[in-house]
Specification:
Layout (H helix, E strand, L loop, with lengths): L1 H35 L35 E9 L6 E10 L4 E6 L19 H11 L5 H17 L5 E6 H10 L3 E5 L3 E5 L4 E5 L2 E5 L1 H9 L7 H23 L3 H14 E3 L3 H12 L12 E5 L2 E6 L2 E6 L1 H12 L22 H7 L10 E3 H8 L3
Parallel strand pairs: 1-4, 3-10
Antiparallel strand pairs: 1-2, 2-3, 4-9, 5-8, 6-7, 10-13, 11-12
């Protein structure tokens, strides 16, 4: 008994000191992540050809005296169906942390594109193309590597640096909506559609309502009832995104909720974004530190300018080169030089065998409409409160 008491007197202070040191280390690490962490960047290698602008420069290096916007991050977000891995959601997002502003560019799924040795010419097949290539190359995570392959394709041809990419299937989308407790918004019209082949059943009534994960999926997938089909669905998705952001800013008020949300993202999404990255962007976006949150009026949403066109009996969306180059240069360009002369160097967004498509692709930018919405006005339009 005397030996036990002696052991306790000797052991407990040391154990207490160990616990104190452990708590200090964990607390210090958490504080460092919260206050000091900043994502690593590799902007020194330009992922597109700059020779048209600077023929004498090494295209693999940033030319001297060209400033990089190191508070400006670009993301590619994809959403694909459960069956064919076709990406019905393709969004480029730029986030300028210094200005606390966000730009989103939706790329219509029917956008015409040329991929090597691939006969399918809609851009919603590009992810599947790169997933298949990653699988053939023995990738341990073909979904993430396929997403990065798609991102690299866009980097090269849209002349943009994409720092992060993420892809989710519909189960992941529903799970993330559930993680924030659903979304409240106005559904602008009755939506009915049944497709047993896709196990897709949509039944929503017009009016203000709460959308959970399942009904939110129905809303963002609905397409057939719009006069302009995919473009109409893209505009409806803008309404949902605005409502989602408003709910996110209202429901995520501390680190514990952000941690749960980050966990859902990591679980449901194939991405090269780390948990620490999510904390970094989340606390800045939500204003959990000393900085204010991103104002809804500073979130701009656009659809890639272009024109619908039938080609060889198939419906495509033809990108307007000049208008898209302007958007990329103005909202997504992190470099201190413009990319207009380098844009789409391989002409992958135009068909070689169609004069009509080429004419639409090269048409004056004033021949197409570029509607720019902000999340605040979309919330008012969508009837959210």
């Amino acid at each position: 008994m005397r030996t036990l008491k002696k052991f306790i007197r000797k052991f407990l202070p040391r154990f207490g000191a160990f616990l104190l040191a452990a708590f200090f280390c964990v607390g210090s690490y958490a504080a460092a992540v919260y206050f000091l962490y900043k994502p690593e960047r590799n902007d020194n290698v330009i992922p597109f050809d700059t020779s048209a602008r600077e023929p004498s420069k090494n295209e693999d290096e940033i030319p001297p005296n060209d400033e990089v916007k190191d508070t400006h991050y670009n993301f590619l977000v994809l959403g694909h169906d459960r069956a064919a891995s076709l990406t019905d959601v393709i969004i480029l997002i730029s986030y300028d942390i210094e200005k606390q502003s966000i730009s989103m560019l939706q790329i219509p799924r029917d956008t015409y594109v040329e991929l090597e040795d691939y006969s399918y010419h809609k851009i919603n097949g590009a992810y599947n193309y790169y997933v298949s290539a990653a699988s053939k190359n023995g990738s341990s995570n073909p979904e993430k590597d396929g997403c990065r392959g798609f991102a690299s394709f866009l980097e090269t041809n849209l002349c943009i640096k994409i720092h992060y990419c993420a892809v989710m299937d519909l189960d992941g989308f529903a799970g993330i909506v559930e993680a924030i407790g659903g979304v409240d918004m106005y559904v602008p019209q009755d939506m009915y559609y049944n497709d047993p082949g896709q196990n897709l059943y949509i039944n929503l009534r017009e009016g203000y309502q709460h959308l959970n994960g399942k009904t939110a999926e129905q809303f963002v997938r609905y397409r057939m009832g719009y006069a302009n089909a995919d473009i109409g669905r893209g505009n409806a998705q803008k309404l949902f995104i605005a409502a989602f952001i408003k709910k996110l800013q209202g429901s995520v008020s501390d680190l514990s909720v952000l941690k749960n949300l980050a966990g859902n993202v990591i679980t449901h999404v194939d991405t090269d974004i780390t948990v620490n990255d999510i904390f970094f962007f989340g606390k800045n976006f939500l204003g959990l530190g000393s900085e204010p949150h991103v104002d809804m009026g500073n979130i701009r949403m656009m659809t890639m300018p272009g024109t619908p066109k039938y080609h060889n009996g198939v419906s495509y969306y033809i990108m307007n080169k000049a208008a898209v180059a302007d958007i990329i240069n103005g909202d997504f360009n992190i470099y201190g030089f413009d990319i207009l002369s380098s844009f789409d160097p391989n002409q992958v967004f135009v068909a070689e065998d169609s004069i009509e498509i080429r004419n639409l692709y090269l048409a004056d930018k004033n021949t197409v409409t570029t509607d720019v919405y902000d999340a605040n006005s979309l919330n008012n339009q969508g009837g959210t409160n």
